[in-house]
Amino acid sequence: MRVLSGIQPTGQIHIGNYLGAIKQWLLLQEKNECFFFIADLHSLTIPYQPENLQKNILETAIVYLAAGINPEKSIFFVQSDIKEHTELCWLLNTVAPIGDLERMTQYKEKSRQFKKNINAGLLVYPVLQAADILLYKTEGVPVGKDQVQHIELARTIARKFNQRFGKTFVEPKAVLAKMGAKIMSLNNPKQKMSKSLESQSYISLFEEPGEIKRKVMSAVTDTGKQIKYNPGKKPGISNLLIIYSLFSEKPIKEVEKIFKGKGYAQFKKSLAELLINSLEPFRKKRKELLSREVYVRETLKLGAKRARAIAESTMHDVRQKIGLA
Ligand code: TYM
């Protein structure tokens, strides 16, 4: 299967991004043809500091490598290095239904969050995402639940394009983790864990042990005492149970058993320890990579070269189909 996914270089990559997306990538890269990229063009649609962008891209690249993306197995690159993403985005804009774009949850949320900057890029954001996916004839897109709507739209756009211009694109499918596709915020378990919210709400992949402990211990829990999985009635504890289960690789039922008769504080203390230990290798690898900036940049350059060859070939076909060549 051909697989592709990306992350925006906006803020700290957290355990939600890891459990929902990156963890799947690591498994998929073993047996599939994978493309993983940094979605820098998408990140321009919300307020940002141009002078920090290059640093954020490099830090995101370090996250990918520290988490275990292997550039010998996967094609790993920066979106803006491949001009074909924006070219295809424009062409797909001419087939994407505007009503569908206006209905996108993320568009509505971002328009609410950034009232003073509702730019056209926010609206066509999913079309650029469709271009990312379709350019490489992607079959599977491993993402968290919040991105499923965008992948569905990419399918619609592929279908419409194929109907009008002849079979060109593959209709992609979202690949979701069985558990962990929607990790909730620590201080508001009714809301998704998000890098654009306050740092108290998430644990970054490189979080220092002291901070992990502080954040887990102050995570919002529910009334009652039992450590029981019940997302409707106990969203806080249920979210922590999912995180515990995924990092310990023990089923939730088993975790419930371990903590039967024990209080929230004891459970949280164990979870903090588990996270400190599980994230330790990422912190170590990051330190090492921070001193190897040249290697990281070279890796991205090489990845771009490999990606470009495929992107150019698709665009050659697309230009002919559409009547531009
Ligand atoms: P981004 O940067 O918001 O998030 C990166 C990935 O992390 C997943 N994710 C979560 N999973 C579980 N629980 C959470 N709380 C959580 N928060 C985020 C996201 O679903 C995503 O998989 N539009 C994309 C980037 C993108 C892309 C693409 C993805 C651009 N082009 C093409 C796939 C294919 C985004 O903003 O991801």
Report the biggest beta sheet as strand number plus sense, adding barrel if it closes.
3 strands, parallel
Assigned CATH superfamily of the largest domain: HUPs
Helix- and strand-based class? mainly alpha
Uncertain segments: none
Measured on Cα atoms, how large is the radius of gyration? 21 Å
- Global geometry: globular
Q: What distance separates the N and C termini? A: 30 Å
- Give the helix proportion (percent range): 55-70%
Spell the H/E element sequence. Answer: EHEHHEHHHHEHEHHHHH
Strand content: 5-15%
In CATH terms, what is the architecture of the largest domain? 3-Layer(aba) Sandwich
Description:
The protein contains 13 helices and 5 strands. The protein is mainly alpha-helical. The protein folds into 2 domains: 2-181 and 293-322, Rossmann fold (3-Layer(aba) Sandwich), CATH 3.40.50; 206-287, Tyrosyl-Transfer RNA Synthetase (Orthogonal Bundle). It has a 3-stranded parallel β-sheet with strand order 1-2-3. Helix 3 (50-67) packs across helix 12 (264-290), helix 7 crosses helix 8 and helix 10 crosses helix 12. The protein starts with a strand and ends with a helix. It binds tryptophanyl-5'AMP. Tryptophanyl-5'AMP is lined by residues 4-8, 16-17, 19-21, 39, 42, 129, 132-133, 141, 143-144, 146-147, 181-183, 192-194. It catalyses: tRNA(Trp) + L-tryptophan + ATP = L-tryptophyl-tRNA(Trp) + AMP + diphosphate + H(+). Catalyzes the attachment of tryptophan to tRNA(Trp). Pfam families: tRNA-synt_1b (PF00579).
